[in-house]
Structure formats: C-alpha cells, structure tokens
Amino acid sequence: MSETTGGTARITESETRSGIFAGSDPYALARAWMAEAEKTEPNDPTAVALATADAGGLPNVRMVLLKEVEESLSEGGFVFYTNFESAKGGELAENPQAAMVMHWKSLRRQVRVRGPVERVGDAQADAYYASRAYKSRIGAWASAQSRPLSSRASLMADVAGYAARYPINPPRPPHWGGFRIRPVEMEFWADGEFRLHNRFRWRREAPGALAWAVQRLNP
Ligand SMILES: Cc1cc2nc3c(=O)[nH]c(=O)nc-3n(C[C@H](O)[C@H](O)[C@H](O)COP(=O)(O)O)c2cc1C
C-alpha cells in the first residue's frame, strides 16, 4: 500500500500504475484518453452514454456529448448540455445523480464515472451556448425535447419563428443549460488479451473526501 499526493488530493493505492494508467489526477487521465480518442475515432470521440434514474429508481440511458472535463486536481467535473425539461432533465431534477461511460472501439478502452449531478453556472452555460452554431442555438429554442411532436413541419415552423425573433445572437433559452457530474467513482478500463482486461477504480476514500483510493480490479 502506498500513499502519494496528487496536487491537493491524496491517493492510496495497492499497486503502482504505469503506462496508459499512470498519473495522480484522474481528470487529467480522462482528458489524456479523450485526446487519444480524438485522433483515432471516426466521429464523436466525446460521446458518452449517460444513465439517470427516476424517483422510482427506473434507469434510463442515452448518448450525450461531453463538453468539458474541468481542470481540477481534486474537484473537477464532467459537463454536458441539454434541455432541462427533457426526460433526462426531469430525472435529474427528481434524482440528481448519474453515471456515464465513454467507450472507444478504436482504442478498446472505456472510462466510467458516477456521482451526484449539479447544474453548471449561468455564465459558463451562456459562454458554451454562444459558441454553438446559430442554427443549433435556434434549435434549442424550438425543440421541446422529449415531448411529443405533432409533425416535422410544426418543428420547422417553430424554428423559422425563433429565427425571425432572434436573427442574431439568440439568448440562451431558460430551459437549456449544462449539468456537471461530480465523480465519487471513476474507472479506467483497457482491453487485454483473452478478456484479461486491466481495470483501475478510483474511489473517494470517504463520502465528501477529496482523497482517492485506487484499486486494481479483476477483469
Ligand atoms: C452521439 C450523440 C450525441 C448526443 N448529444 C446530445 C447532447 O449533448 N445533448 C442532448 O440533449 N442530446 C444529445 N443527443 C440526443 C440524446 O441522445 C437524446 O435523444 C436526447 O437528449 C433526449 O434524451 P431524453 O429523452 O432521455 O432526455 C445525442 C445523441 C447522440 C447519438
């Protein structure tokens, strides 16, 4: 058992990690793996399957694009953007916890993250919204995401209506913004021969603690 200090976060681990698993900051490790995936994946290297559950505990899952792995040694988060009134938005309002997994076929690796979820601040969400394509910004106004739609034509009429209302610089809709998953657990997985994969789980040493305990897991 060894103890090291990764920035402000202490790490306890049973085995020294090397190669693609090395490092004392799990956010930096996730960013490094994503940077590799950007070179090898044909499209959407930041796509994640995002799992939520409603108040009754029934799980739901869908893809979203991860837009930020925040720069922090100990208190970072995984950020995505969506409609607060969507199915996932409702589930996160009832039960603000989520899990996500990134899987890159080209690298044969996956990263898993679990934790409580909070909304991203207005300034950060405004900045991200402003960076999107104009038509995507208008689409966020027009789409009542996850609710029934009578026809494609009615959606396109709403798109035209919002484009006429906001010919330039649409403000961020009040129903659209970001969520941040604050990990209490992360897992880095890489494919091994004959299913003898390599897995390292990073877990907070105690609820609310900054320190991580890193453990190699059986495949
Ligand atoms: C690769 C990919 C990326 C996606 N990214 C997002 C996203 O970042 N935000 C979003 O709201 N929907 C995104 N979607 C659409 C969602 O998968 C989903 O259809 C939508 O958010 C409604 O989900 P819900 O009804 O569970 O709320 C993406 C779909 C795919 C296939």
Automatic annotation (TrEMBL):
Residues that coordinate or bind FMN: 62-67, 81-82, 88, 110, 145-146, 189, 199
Record's cofactor remark: Binds 1 FMN per subunit.
Pathway membership: Cofactor metabolism; pyridoxal 5'-phosphate salvage; pyridoxal 5'-phosphate from pyridoxamine 5'-phosphate: step 1/1; Cofactor metabolism; pyridoxal 5'-phosphate salvage; pyridoxal 5'-phosphate from pyridoxine 5'-phosphate: step 1/1
Record keywords, A-Z: Flavoprotein, FMN, Oxidoreductase, Pyridoxine biosynthesis
Cofactor: FMN
The reaction(s) this protein catalyses: pyridoxamine 5'-phosphate + O2 + H2O = pyridoxal 5'-phosphate + H2O2 + NH4(+); pyridoxine 5'-phosphate + O2 = pyridoxal 5'-phosphate + H2O2
Location of the Pyridoxamine 5'-phosphate oxidase N-terminal domain: 36-160
EC number(s) from the headed UniProt entry: 1.4.3.5
Domain Pyridoxine 5'-phosphate oxidase dimerisation C-terminal as annotated: residue spans: 176-219
Binding site for substrate: 67, 128, 132, 136, 195-197
Family: Belongs to the pyridoxamine 5'-phosphate oxidase family.
Record text on subunit structure and interactions: Homodimer.
Biological role: Catalyzes the oxidation of either pyridoxine 5'-phosphate (PNP) or pyridoxamine 5'-phosphate (PMP) into pyridoxal 5'-phosphate (PLP).
Protein name: Pyridoxine/pyridoxamine 5'-phosphate oxidase
Organism name: Paralimibaculum aggregatum
